[in-house]
Design goal:
2 copies of one chain form a homodimer. Chain A has one domain: 3-Layer(aba) Sandwich (UDP-N-acetylmuramoyl-L-alanine:D-glutamate ligase), CATH 3.40.1190. Chain A has 11 helices and 14 strands. In chain A, strands 1, 4, 5, 6, 9, 10, 11, 12, 13 and 14 form a 10-stranded mixed β-sheet that branches. A 4-stranded mixed β-sheet of chain A has the order 3-2-7-8. In chain A, helix 1 packs parallel to helix 8 and helix 9 crosses helix 11. Chain A is globular. Chains A and B meet through helix 7, strand 14, helix 9 and helix 11 of A and helix 7, strand 14, helix 9 and helix 11 of B.
Chain lengths: 300, 300
Amino acid sequence: MSIVVVGSVAFDTIETPGRRVDRALGGSATYFSVAASCFVPVGLVAVVGDDFLDDHRAVLVSRGIDLEGLAVVKGGKTFFWHGRYGLDPNERESIATELNVFENFRPELPSSYRDRKWIFLGNIDPEIQLEVLEQSSGESFIGCDTMNYWIDRKPEGLREVLKRTDMLFVNDEEARFLSGKSNLVKAGKEILKMGPRGVIVKKGEHGAFLLMDDFIFYAPAYPLEDVTDPTGAGDSFAGGFMGALAAAGEPKGETFRKAMVFATASASFTCQDFSIDGLKNLTREKLEERAGELAGLVAV
Amino acid sequence: MSIVVVGSVAFDTIETPGRRVDRALGGSATYFSVAASCFVPVGLVAVVGDDFLDDHRAVLVSRGIDLEGLAVVKGGKTFFWHGRYGLDPNERESIATELNVFENFRPELPSSYRDRKWIFLGNIDPEIQLEVLEQSSGESFIGCDTMNYWIDRKPEGLREVLKRTDMLFVNDEEARFLSGKSNLVKAGKEILKMGPRGVIVKKGEHGAFLLMDDFIFYAPAYPLEDVTDPTGAGDSFAGGFMGALAAAGEPKGETFRKAMVFATASASFTCQDFSIDGLKNLTREKLEERAGELAGLVAV
């Protein structure tokens, strides 16, 4: 029951009012796979340059992440992002985005990945997401992320992806933009009409909800007093969700609910430390403990 | 186990993109008492002018609301408010606020109210809230509402009130302004240091949370696709909370949790119709049903 994730691996320079880290291991597929690896083995499909060192590789391998699908472009540089957060961690400014080798990323699934039951399409060009789907057996449970950039520029490709998506992950702003509805429940219902079996709307500090035809589930965020670095919170949310689902084996109501709580827990650990430091030593046991706390927050 | 509420009774003219109602019965104490009356009898302490007619009175009396404490100023006019909501119901513009007889409101508790166990201080001048506390036996459970206007202009009076408050009701913006903290959990903890035993932070469509020294509880909002008129949502939230608590008899952990869910349910019914129309025929049974739905939204 292992998962394949296709997305970005990057170096992130992150500034917050209290600290700066330079060229830390980041990228959506990195956060996703480290979080999901608390539950099941993960196969990572991404691209890096030859500035991606054995040390970086070792961090991922130590988490049981398979790197067969990690392409290395000789003489190329790894995707680089530099961001700065304000006193309010919801305020983020992108100072530099250098796509580098990621610009021409054409993911190729290793043959052993092609019949995997669980696939997550990170936030990349919908046309590339479609290429990944073409390479899979068609029997998979497909999780998918996107963003306003693609909703705006590749609406047709995205529509095709959504028809083949089981669970779409968007934030509130993306849900509104994709659906044209400001009310988030309406937005979610509109998105379901586009094809996905379910949609998860992430609302940052206000938690997230999962909407499907036959049910709706709310997970409040874990009440953190200090958000150290929210980078990757959404990706690790998706990783925790897909990981918990894959570990449970069956995508249905009860497992979706539990997966939402594990997803929330994963995102909270990410926010508590810089870069992937909050996830690196995370275990399923720690997630179970926090999931118990989260259940206690809402139990009547 | 009846409740006393002190606050405003008003006429509201409300405009939304779809409809306008003129001089409908409103005011914080009205919403509070109609919601609370689903659970227990309520004594309303407020002031109106002689434009307040028998029909208005009848609406309240039919809900089991005692009007012994409703002062009538002869020749005076009742508090009037005119507001307009945008397409986004979170956007509200005040077009007119005429305090009229409310400007010189000095509430006087009927003698039979003075030893009531449950008192709610609506959003009025903290110095007047203190006068109400002086008139009560001192053995009551005190709920209290306030707003940025009083936090800014009457900080000392408000501090005194908070020392004697059991449960403070504020929205996210007020919590931040009162505490000087932008993180809402930190804000809540800072507010607890000011004296209240508990603080409820209302976040509109994102729900509300209750913070006390020994616990925290989250209640997501009821997922409404259409918000008809959010006027009075916060007041009916408080009414549902205090009503459920008074009906349970004992202010402790489990009853607080249930009261939060009933409060959320009350606010949702308010938002579903204009003015107090969503509350007028509300029963405890309907609230129980919605509370069950709300519990289902978060049950893992």
